[in-house]
Amino acid sequence: MTGKLITLEGIDGSGKSTITKSLKHYFKGKPNVVFTREPTREWTGEAVNRAINEETDHLAELFLFVADHANHLSKTIRPGIADNKTVISDRYSDSRYAYQGATLKGIIEQPLEWVMELHKGWTVVPDLTILFDVSPEIAVSRVGTRDYQTKFEKISFLEQVRSNYLKLVDMQPERFIVVNAEQPYSKVEQAVFKAVKDNMA
């Protein structure tokens, strides 16, 4: 028996973090399930958050994300799997592929593929990735916009991120389950819980 890695992905406003809280509540007290996230709460994750808030150069931001991911693998992901636990991560490498694949557009040729290539050979590929799919218009209406971005700039950016996520699904359909995050919350929760339980069985 070996542990498993389940990741939760989606654009800002997809409802992913709310479902994560429900999952944490359901599995509370069960030692065989570990919850984690990216960016992490380590100093490397703090550096990522600082880079995001200070509008750092996009390449510099990417490599901070990659460093945090490497630290995450070393401290949490690999030890959890080795201990036969199910590790559930709120965001993981696919967030990087989708988001940095969007921010690096026009800077790097085929940015999504390029960022994926950076991870090849050393990252841990999830056993299951649940993608919370929602239109950028609905997502932005849920979370609002940052001060330095207009609503339309935010929607345009998230359209590219969403497109990247769906491209990843096409590339690796065997590990993705796409959940319509525009459904009523109860239906989204039901679909996610079923996917997680089925993968753990």
Throw out a few tags for this protein.
201 residues; alpha/beta; Rossmann fold; five-stranded parallel β-sheet; 8 helices; globular
Question: What is the compact description of this entry?
Answer:
The protein is α/β, with parallel strands linked by helices and about 200 residues long. Helices cover about 55% and strands about 15% of the residues.
Could you walk me through the main structural features you see in this protein, from its secondary elements to its overall organization?
It contains 8 helices and 5 strands. With 201 residues, the protein is α/β, with parallel strands linked by helices. The protein has one domain: Rossmann fold. A 5-stranded parallel β-sheet has the order 2-3-1-4-5, sandwiched between helices. Helix 3 packs antiparallel against helix 4, helix 4 packs antiparallel against helix 5 and helix 4 crosses helix 7. The longest helix is centred in the middle third of the chain and has 25 residues. The chain starts with a strand and ends with a helix.
The CATH topology is given as Rossmann fold
Q: Helical amount among residues, as a percent range?
A: 55-70%
N→C terminal distance:
11 Å
CATH class: Alpha Beta
Number of helices: 8
Topology:
Layout: E1 4-10, H1 16-26, E2 33-37, H2 43-53, H3 58-82, E3 86-90, H4 93-103, H5 111-119, E4 128-133, H6 136-143, H7 151-171, E5 176-180, H8 185-200
Parallel strand pairs: 1-3, 1-4, 2-3, 4-5
Helix pairs in contact: 2-3, 3-4, 4-5, 4-7, 6-7
